[in-house]
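Hi team,

As requested, here is the filled-out complex form for the S-adenosylmethionine run. I kept the field names the same as last time so the parser does not choke. Let me know if anything looks off before we queue the next batch.

— J.
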Amino acid sequence: MTVEPGWVPPGIDTTRANVARVYDYWLGGDHNFQADRDLARTIIALDPNIRATMRANRAFLGRVVRFLAGQAGIRQFLDIGSGIPTENNVHQVAQDTAPGSRVVYVDSDDVAVAHSRLLLAGNPDATVIQGDLREPGKILADPETQLLLDFTQPVAVFVVAVLHFIPDTGQAAQIVAALRDALAPGSYLVICHACRDEQPSLANSFESVYNSRVTARLVMRSRDEIAGLCDGFTLVEPGLVWIPQWRPDFPDDVPEDPSRYWALVGVGRYDGPPSPGR
Ligand SMILES: C[S@@+](CC[C@H](N)C(=O)[O-])C[C@H]1O[C@@H](n2cnc3c(N)ncnc32)[C@H](O)[C@@H]1O
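And here is what came back:
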């Protein structure tokens, strides 16, 4: 029998599976409870590749941050829906690549925020705030965000594996637009979004398991809908692709059928509002 650990922040419901903790389990972390593990295993039974998919997502995140802090010269990062810290978190990769890079993490989950706070203690260039993606204005105006990030300069905004928890596509688009409108030209959007196109029946099963047993609703969107969420950004090469296809470190890292990693990822550059003739 697994003993419930004693580090639980007060007031959290450990009897219902939770997005951040289920993901932590798939990644091999130990900040999860029986309900999270039960749900995670139900999904592993539906898709035995799910843990590999989640690890591929983390590897994608590492490659993107190295690209942004390296080649793209970005020094400011806003990671929304950042999750429970694991390995190669954004601030670690960014600050290794470009020391002094500043990072604000945002998550709505108590466990994610509590553990991020512990990890970031003593790091003057990184912080975490508790915030909800559905309220982008509050995230942007938060005193901690304002203290660390200068929005007159480029910022990379991450919405990685989180927009599919905003069920209304119109609302998801409005959120991205609100974030985009706060950015200076030369900023970036990083997206990873579950896509239903290649495996619609698996997508239906995921959605029904999540939506009956997890504290957040999951919506897997079509490629066109996901592309629409990147409106106003110009996707850098190779565009919107399956997770392992985004600038792999080695060509052999791309599996024969990359759509088994059923999330689309992309990095979009913001070049400012369209001029009247554009
Ligand atoms: C699947 S995890 C992704 C973590 C990280 N971005 C990554 O890709 O490794 C999704 C995270 O989004 C957070 N989340 C879900 N809905 C959110 C919302 N409305 N506002 C802020 N965070 C949210 C969850 O708490 C969880 O930590």
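Two things worth flagging: Residues 19-20, 23, 57-58, 61, 81-83, 107-109, 112, 132-134, 160-162, 165, 216 surround S-adenosylmethionine (CB under 6 Å). The first strand starts at residue 76 and ends at 80.

Thanks,
J.
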